[in-house]
Amino acid sequence: MIQWVHRKSLLGAWLGSRGFWRSKHQGLIAALGEHLVKPGLVEPKYGRILHDAFETRLDSDYAPHPDLHEDSARNVVRNAADFVQRMERLLEEHGAENEVQDGIQ
To answer: Is the sign of the CA dihedral 10, 16, 18, 22 positive or negative?
Structure first.
């Protein structure tokens, strides 16, 4: 999830449309907190969802005994869908659909 969010996501597009470009995953996570959660544009749970997805990806790539259980994977997928829906709603609420759609294609 984090690779997609970082490169072609609604979050990256929304931040980029406002001049907040980030080149690293941690920078994108921090920008979500700074520019969306702190001002109250999105709920704090979406910062946690993105952070947890990043940690899960790191764990699956680098941990000696990663958590590869089906329930964990389903939870990540469910949270990813929730995250994407919220970012779509953010774009609808703040009128950036056209700017973002041009950037994603």
So the answer is: positive
pLDDT digits (tens, 9 = 90+) for 37-48: 999 999 999 999
What sections of the chain are H helices per DSSP? 2-8, 10-17, 25-32, 44-62, 70-94, 97-104
**The predicted structure's pLDDT at residue 65:** 83
Sign, Cα dihedral of 54, 57, 83, 20 = positive
Spans of the chain below 50 pLDDT: 3-8, 97-105
Helix and strand numbers, DSSP H then E, in the chain? 6, 0
Query: What CATH number did the domain enclosing 97 receive?
Result: 1.20.120
Alpha-carbon gap, residue 93 to 68, rounded angstroms: 36
Number of domains, the chain: 1
